[in-house]
Amino acid sequence: MGMSVIISAAKAQDAEQVLKLQYLCFQREAELYGNYRIDPLVQTLESVRAEIATNLVFVARLGEEVVGSVRGSAEQGGTGQIGKLCVHPRLQGHGLGARLLGAAEAGLADQRSATRFRLHTGHRSEGNLRLYRRAGYAPVGNATGQDGVLMILLEKEASAHAYVTSA
């Protein structure tokens, strides 16, 4: 490729690229569950803009193209919520998801004083579950999302060892 993928905070002007990438990436999840009404596929551009304005949103860029993103927010009590982690299909399998996850964790710990991280993924999403286990997350329960998909809830302490990749 000749270029390095750079991870940085999302800017307001990234909202449209983030939403398009999210729509592309979550097609596989929708197919896996036979449900094309999952939250990432029905999110509006306005709500992505609002997330960028109020939460921690990180993007991975290859030149000017957004090729990955992740969101983080903080709850009272020190829990950082991480969600909508996605990497462009042509760049999956090279450690970019782990790098984005690490950026969200570091941002939540440093900027929002998170002491614990929580995320969720669908129960059939084996690749996601493998990534989260390697990053130190452990299942703590499950819940059914508004879209009807059974979600596995995972957590880890902020001080837990994170999966580190050289990619």
Structural description of this entry:
The chain is α+β, with helices and mostly antiparallel strands and 167 residues long. The protein has one domain (5-157): Gcn5-related N-acetyltransferase (GNAT) (Aminopeptidase). The protein has 6 helices and 7 strands. The chain starts with a strand and ends in a 10-residue tail after the last strand.
Order of helices and strands: EHHHHEEEHEHEE
* Name of the top-level CATH class: Alpha Beta
**Average of per-residue pLDDT values:** 93
C-alpha Rg (nearest Å): 15 Å
Determine the N-to-C terminus distance. Answer: 13 Å
CATH fold-level name: Aminopeptidase
User: Helicity level, as a percent range?
Assistant: 25-40%
Secondary-structure arrangement, i.e. CATH architecture = 3-Layer(aba) Sandwich
CATH-wise, what's the superfamily? Answer: Gcn5-related N-acetyltransferase (GNAT)
- The total count of helices amounts to 6
**Strand adjacency order, main sheet:** 1-2-3-4-5-7-6
How many strand units?
7
Going by helix content, strand content and strand pairing, the class is: alpha+beta
* Spatial shape: globular
Largest sheet: 7 strands, mixed
Poorly predicted segments:
161-167
Total separate domains: 1
